[in-house]
Design a protein that fits this description.
about 290 residues; seven-stranded mixed β-sheet; 14 strands; 9 helices; alpha/beta; 2 domains; globular; Rossmann fold
């Protein structure tokens, strides 16, 4: 089992022929991801990287049965690209684009409520189910198949966590980079819930950062759900001063419970195994999985 993407996903690339789309699409194809084509308005009927180019997402759905998309469209046009994909019936929309205006994302969030599409991102590294599909910009060689799910606001910490888990002798079911913008599609809680319901996932790594309430909401849901599977948590931004944006646009402490320390306390109170350093993620996973085995 996996969540969101697998070997059967029929994936298109929006912004296919641009420099970013070309580079990352070629990497995904090399990984073995089932890319069935791409979309660049005005270039329909051409071929790129050995795959067909379509003028619209609807064309890609009609002609290639696409059900998943990854978006490498510039910030000014990315919101329209997301809504176009949802309108065409795409079920999983993964948006890599950074810098989409918050006002645009407010419209996207409202629009998606009337569809059955799931958005991951924007400003995220994507989703990977090792050995099946890499739909994103993550370095595929780090990820090995296994029994640990990862949910992360941070791209680089997703890779770091996967590397540590693998070095401990375990592997990854699916890693989901949810993105660090103020308004995103799939929340921490929603991503954790998908992995909790995945029979192959035996433990979860949850990586958060300062700002917002997503980690607290996820932690309270995990406890209310009965702590079915062990969760290792890390919160980035422990030295960040209040009121200053750090890295991601959403990483700003603007209210109570949004600092790293406050979030770490909430996670611990709800039964999550909190580590103070990302260097300890792998060890903590090995420890909780040994406990499950015993």
């Amino acid at each position: 089992m996996s969540v969101l993407v697998n070997k059967d996903s029929k994936i298109i690339v929006q912004g296919f022929t641009g420099s970013e789309g070309t580079f990352h699409a070629s990497q995904m194809i090399e990984y073995g991801t089932n890319i069935v084509g791409g979309v660049t308005p005005g270039k329909g009927g051409q071929e790129h990287l050995g795959k067909p180019v379509f003028n619209t997402v609807q064309d890609a759905v009609d002609k290639a049965q696409a059900d998943t998309t990854i978006i490498f469209v510039p910030p000014a046009f990315a919101a329209d690209a997301i809504m176009e994909a949802a309108d065409a019936g795409i079920k999983v929309i993964i948006c890599i684009t950074e810098g989409i205006p918050v006002g645009d994302m407010v419209k996207v969030k409202a629009y998606l409520q009337n569809t059955d599409a799931r958005l991951v991102g924007p400003n995220c590294p994507g989703v990977i189910t090792p050995g099946e599909a890499k739909v994103g910009i993550m370095p595929g060689f780090i990820f090995k198949k296994g029994n640990v799910g990862i949910v992360s606001k941070s791209g680089t910490l997703t890779y770091e966590a996967a590397d540590q888990v693998v070095k401990q002798g375990y592997g990854i079911t699916t890693a989901i980079g949810i993105g660090g913008d103020p308004i995103i599609g799939t929340t921490t809680k929603e991503a954790v819930e998908m992995l909790m319901n995945d029979p192959e996932t035996e433990a979860i790594v949850m990586i958060g950062e300062i700002g917002g309430q997503l980690e607290a909401e996820a932690a309270r849901w995990i406890k209310a759900d009965g702590n079915r599977k062990p969760v290792v948590g890390f919160i980035a931004g422990q030295t960040a001063p209040a009121g200053r944006t750090m890295g991601h646009a959403g990483a700003i402490v603007s209210g109570e419970g949004e600092s790293a320390q406050a979030k770490m306390e909430i996670l611990a109170e709800n039964g999550i195994h909190v580590v103070a350093s990302p260097a300890k993620i792998g060890e903590a996973i090995a420890s909780v999985l040994a406990g499950v085995a015993n």
